[in-house]
Amino acid sequence: MSELNQVLKQRRQKAQEMAEMGINIYSNDFRPTHKISEILPKNDHPDLPVEAGVKIVAGRIMALRKFGKAAFVHVQDESGKIQIYVKRDDIGVDAYQVFKKFDIGDIAGFKGPLFRTKTGELSIHATSIHPITKSLRPLPEKFHGLTDVETRYRQRYVDLIMNPEVRDTFRKRVEIIRLIRDFLTNRGFMEVETPMMQAIAGGATAKPFKTHHNALGMDLYLRIAPELYLKRLLVGGFERVFEINRNFRNEGLSTRHNPEFTMLEFYQAFATYHELMDLTEEMVSWIAVEVTGAMTVPYQGQEVDLAPPWKRYTMDQALIEVGKIDPATLSDPEKTRQFAKEKGIELDELAGHGKVKTELFELLVEEKLINPTFVTQYPTEVSPLARRNEENPEVTDRFELFITGREMANAFSELNDPIDQKQRLEKQIAERGDDDEIFPEMDEDFVRALEYGMPPAAGEGIGIDRLVMLLTDSPSIRDVILFPHLRAEKK
Questions:
Q1: Whose CA, among 134, 190, 330, 423, lies 20 to 30 Å from 360?
Q2: 3-139 has which fold?
């Protein structure tokens, strides 16, 4: 029998013995009076007086040292960890017999006054103990040291038990989302909810997840983006709207991509993408200070300066200054295409000059943009929903924000010309070609909505997961998603 199986057998035997003693090993009648963090002063010192009164706490046993008739236990709740001193003569012989069946990982309650040990550690001197939940499976001894990080993602519940820094990451995630809501709400934006299942996969270029609704007798898609529905709300008269919710894309997995991810999208009537750049600078730098206490944050060995103003390039400027492409090459479509081929970029025959430049940008520029950088004037060819620049119709009034070499946000002044919009959607559908799984379809209702008149507006999407990665110094998107998608576990 393997060592693990032997431990599992021993724990089940203890559980059975406790049940035979009349102990409810899955009770729900114990109520703690304090969180552990409320008991432990933030700046505890051996010379500080001990607070009087009985404390009642509950949590998971993380360490257990038994010395015959006494023991020291470390108990952890969601707020912190404290030491408990348990002595047979204080809790009684019968209770101590029950206590001897406690294991690391069990959830238990303890009652007693505070005292300091000889080493000065603030502890609870137990006068009674209460078994609450018996753990039938042992905690790993050195979970944090596991080289197989997939186990941490797959068994996130154990990861959270063992690693306080992981719990802190997800607390910060919640805080970041709350701060976004506060920031936008205080500026007159209204939070809304739009459909997660959509009849037409629109709003972005990506492969959706497909399902079927039996009662309606129709195929539906998990949404790629909420964009087209949020714009309908602008048509309807709501001038500032935002949504924080999941998007779904049936594409690859990586340290930057998960099939379902959280996005913030917001739209503001009577605004341009320039105003959204200013708003984004203000919002992200403010959140950074609220969460980390500074505008300069560490990320994987680099210092990232989030203090405004942020660098701004047009795409052509970025290709020339950062990508080191000769301006003469960049201005000539044939020379640009040839240069891209020399760099190993595979190009579709229908790809125009704008598409080629975008491919070069992704290869030569993106990963070099460590500090926040806005890149503007994306080619119209790769921006089917963005407003054309009035001075140069070959580009759009659009920006993408890059931090640590990753796209963090995408925004543009919205296209509200229904004729131009329909033509661009038709072109996008034609370029997509045949797809055995997805029937390329024009969103006629969205075009119809534009025909009623949408006010001039700007809209933006920010990847929440990537923002949390930045502000928690997390290398992988899986580190900031509680239950990331993984391949099926091998049996």
A1: 423
A2: OB fold (Dihydrolipoamide Acetyltransferase, E2P) (2.40.50)
Q: Which residue has the tokens 């739009």?
A: 194
pLDDT digits (tens, 9 = 90+) for 57-95: 999 999 999 999 999 999 999 999 999 999 999 999 999
Q: Which residue has the tokens 């796209």?
A: 407
At residue 144, the pLDDT reads 46
Q: Which residue has the tokens 């939070």?
A: 191
List CB contacts of 458: < 8 A, sequence separation 6 or more. 267, 268, 271, 272, 273, 275, 276, 411, 412, 413, 414
Residues 264, 464: contact at Cβ < 8 Å? yes
**In the structure encoding, which two tokens stand for residue 52, read together?**
């009087």
pLDDT surpasses 50 at 427: yes
* Superfamily (CATH) of domain 160-323+365-479: Bira Bifunctional Protein; Domain 2 (3.30.930.10)
| pLDDT at 367 > cutoff 60 | yes
- The full set of domain ranges for the chain reads 3-139, 160-323+365-479
pLDDT reported for residue 207: 87
Which helix (H) or strand (E) is 122 found in, with range?
strand 122-125
Residue 79, amino acid: S
d(CA 306, CA 282): 10
